[in-house]
Write a structure and sequence with these properties.
The protein is an alpha+beta fold. The protein folds into two domains: 60-476 and 735-749, Glycosidases (TIM Barrel, Alpha-Beta Barrel); 499-729, no CATH class. Helices cover 23% and strands 23% of the residues. It contains 15 helices and 40 strands. The strands form twelve sheets. It has an eight-stranded parallel beta barrel with strand order 4-5-6-9-11-14-16-19. Strands 24, 27, 28, 29, 37, 38 and 39 form a seven-stranded antiparallel beta sheet that branches. β2 (48-52) and β3 (55-58) form a beta hairpin. α10 packs parallel to α11 (414-430) and α11 packs parallel to α15 (738-749). The longest helix is centred in the N-terminal third of the chain and has 23 residues, at 2-24.
Length: 750
């Protein structure tokens, strides 16, 4: 018995060691070295092919990017469960997409769901959902002192490539603590994986730093990929990574699939005039034309780009190019002209063969520089081009404009989002691309945007829906507050308002309020209110540090110092204004907007001046005008839009801020517009001029009032509205946006 126990323990130990070596360390013995290597994907100059019934047929990647965020969770929590994935896969395929793209290693629930979903589809004789898998490089590594040949960069990237391959073949286990998904990956999903996109939107400074540091490493020659004589050290690094992921999957699993390297306009392969290069500090190019494949690579590679119609913003102004030298002025008295050059020195005008004037016009006859740029990419490359990210945001805030086609980064309704996605898709395919992936499937509350991130607590973003931060709203799927429905819909129907919601009652009317994770809602009821002729004011006091009892703009007074005033003045001229001491734009961006120091002449805490609420835009204004003192453009985000905000209504407008009722008006105001930086804990902006920027203080109440213009006797009376945060206990429910159904209808017809 003793010997048996020892033998059993030895066997168990051997099995444990073997299991750990195989699933955790990736150690294996090739038992079939002579087995034929297979692939079901191939490429030629401009087309991707998929094998079906022994024949290779053209395959258009019609995809959608899938993120990892849900309300109340960070991306790195990987909190999406299997049932949610299964539900989403069905919706995605019903929409008409055939492919999903993920950026990094997810929790095993994703792969288990993907296996179950596709197994069921195949058993029913239905088309499966295909997958493009990414290999991520984290932001810290990219934005640190590390170059691309640092072990934390290159070796980690190589290790993650092998891990991804093992996961997709169901041969891996990952523990918590690596910043990636974790679990036991035992489902072989490789039959439905068409390829890999390696890397991220490269930081140009990392590319340039690598190229400068390692001039001797500008070449690589592998079994499956090699560089040309024109390659840079960074491109040689990419070539090595691509070669190694092909090598690993070929040797261990006897399979090959498509490979691409991520890219975007910041590191596109083109050279621009000096004025553009200098202003935007464009310092590097990445050109996958310098990476070639050998005959041993049976599949193929493609060029992957993230391209949006509003970025880079200088592309808005590439009109009617003329032959100019880099030393020529970028602007003249009549028209702003520029020429873009390929890295080989061939001008954009030459590259756009045919009538260069027509190259800037799409099939509708409008100037469309997005379309022109896409054609430039496709004409540059000798391999298929896939636009692996494109889209627009339904967030209320905006960060960039597309001045030619109005496909902006933010402040787009769900209907406008649908129209923009469809028109972008048409541009992408008309330009000759082999496929595309919409960005993105679901809204993600945790995200940030450059022009609002100063105003919020970045450690608490998953716990509220910040409608001013456009990056949170690129999805086709919305997460609306409330378990099954929102507590209020601004639609003119006041049935959801009750006695308990009344904050202030006075002769002739009342003011009611409520709030959720996205909005503060107001219902002002006034007897005899005529929205066509009457002007209504709602003063708001949030901070104890500043505010005025008098608003000189409108000639009204309050019984408390106020920080904001909501002015409802008809459908087209309503807005929120802020007391100038509490204007975050002034405190943070006055140098960019007015070329002055905000902290030299500070507004008084009780200043009676109220200002429009603006947001910064990223534009190429100085390049166009030659006025380097006005380096930035702003737009008024405090202006309120009239409409019906109920998604169940036929006239639904997702951007609507207010709607008239029979005897008053319903209003919804996003938290950040009132300088809340974290409403989940009721944190607002402190006095900017005490801290030289944005810091936070907590409040447990705000004061509000209501009055019609000319009807108030003296000061407008104000009452307390209690506030209590919800911490991390968020509520939300899924809702497919209008854009989803529009894209579904379009793809079904095409």
């Amino acid at each position: 018995m003793k010997k048996f126990i020892i033998a059993a323990c030895a066997v168990f130990l051997c099995l444990f060691v073997a299991n750990y070596a195989y699933y955790h360390l990736g150690i294996y013995i090739d038992l079939h070295p002579d087995q034929e290597v297979t692939t079901f994907m191939k490429t030629d100059a401009d087309t991707i092919y998929m094998e079906r019934d022994g024949q290779y047929e053209p395959f258009e990647i019609r995809g959608v990017n899938l993120g990892v965020g849900i309300p109340g969770e960070w991306a790195t929590d990987y909190a999406i469960d299997k049932q949610t994935y299964l539900r989403w896969f069905g919706w995605i395929q019903e929409m008409g997409a055939n492919t999903i793209r993920v950026y990094t290693i997810l929790h095993d629930d994703f792969y288990n769901a993907f296996y179950e979903y596709n197994t069921g589809r195949v058993q029913q004789g239905l088309e499966p959902l295909w997958l493009i898998h990414g290999v991520w490089v984290n932001d810290y590594t990219q934005n640190s002192h590390r170059d691309a040949y640092d072990d934390d960069f290159l070796q980690t990237l190589l290790d993650d490539c092998r891990t991804v391959v093992d996961i997709l073949h169901g041969k891996k286990s990952l523990s918590l603590g690596y910043g990636l998904g974790s679990g036991s990956y035992r489902k072989d999903v490789s039959p439905w994986v068409i390829g890999y996109i390696l890397g991220v939107e490269w930081e140009d400074v990392t590319v340039a730093y690598t190229n400068e540091k390692y001039p001797e490493r500008a070449s690589y020659s592998g079994t499956y990929m090699y560089t040309t004589a024109d390659a840079t050290p960074f491109e040689a690094m990419l070539c090595q990574v691509g070669d190694k992921i092909i090598e690993y999957e070929t040797e261990r699993y006897k399979q090959q699939r498509l490979v691409a390297f991520s890219n975007w306009p910041t590191t596109d392969p083109f050279l621009y005039p000096a004025a553009i290069t200098n202003f935007f500090m464009k310092c590097a190019q990445v050109d996958v034309e310098h990476i070639k494949t050998t005959d041993a690579f049976l599949s193929g590679h493609f060029a992957s780009y993230h391209v949006y119609p509003y970025y880079p913003d200088y592309m808005n102004y590439v009109l009617n190019p003329v032959e100019i030298q880099d030393t020529d002025p970028l602007w003249d008295d009549e028209q702003n002209n520029m020429t873009i050059y390929h890295s080989n020195g061939v001008s954009y005008k030459t590259a756009l063969s045919g009538n260069e004037q027509e190259d800037y016009y799409d099939s509708t006859g409008r100037v469309n520089t997005y379309y022109a740029y896409l054609k430039m990419l496709n004409r540059h490359h000798t391999i298929p081009v896939v636009i692996s990210e494109y889209g627009v945001s339904t967030g209320r805030g905006m960060a960039q404009r597309d001045i030619n086609t109005n496909r902006n980064q933010g402040h787009m309704s769900e209907q406008e989002q649908g129209e923009a996605i469809i028109s972008c898709y048409e541009d992408i395919m008309a330009a000759g691309s082999a496929g595309s992936c919409v960005f993105t499937w679901q809204d993600e509350w945790f995200k940030r945007t450059w022009n609002t991130m100063h105003a919020v607590d970045l450690d608490k973003t998953p716990y509220w829906s910040d409608y001013q931060t456009n990056e949170q709203y690129f999805g086709l799927l919305s997460f609306d507050p409330g378990e099954t429905e929102s507590i209020c819909y601004v639609d003119g129907d006041v049935s959801e308002w009750g006695e308990d919601d009344i904050v202030l009652s006075q002769s002739g009317g009342s003011l009611s309020m409520k709030y959720d994770e996205k909005f503060i809602y107001f219902y002002a009821e006034q007897a005899g209110y005529d929205p066509e002729t009457d002007t209504l004011y709602i003063p708001i006091d949030t901070t104890p540090k500043s505010g005025s009892t008098y608003c000189e703009n409108y000639g009204i007074t309050f019984d408390r110092p106020c920080d904001f005033v909501i002015r409802i003045n008809g459908r087209d001229n309503s807005r929120v204004v802020v007391q100038e001491r509490y204007e975050v734009m002034r405190a943070m961006f006055m140098h960019e907007t007015e070329d002055e120091d905000a902290y030299l002449d500070v507004p008084d805490p009780d200043s009676p001046a109220f200002r429009y609420i603006d947001l910064m835009l990223q534009t190429a204004t100085p390049l166009l005008t030659g006025n380097w003192q006005a380096s930035s453009e702003v737009y008024e985000t405090g202006k309120l839009l009239y409409g019906n905000a109920n998604p169940e209504d036929a006239s639904f407008n997702s951007l609507a801020d207010f709607c008239f009722t029979e005897n008053g008006v319903e209003i919804r105001i996003p938290w950040q517009l009132l300088n809340f930086g974290n409403p989940s804990e009721m944190m607002i902006h402190d006095d900017y001029y005490e801290h030289y920027g944005v810091e936070f203080i907590s409040i447990d109440e705000m004061y509000v009032g209501v009055a019609l213009e000319g009807a108030s006797q003296g000061r407008i009376r104000m009452a307390s509205f209690p506030l209590e945060g919800w911490g991390k206990e968020v509520t939300s429910h899924e809702r497919l946006k209008q854009s989803y159904y529009m894209l579904k209808e379009y793809w079904a017809a095409s």
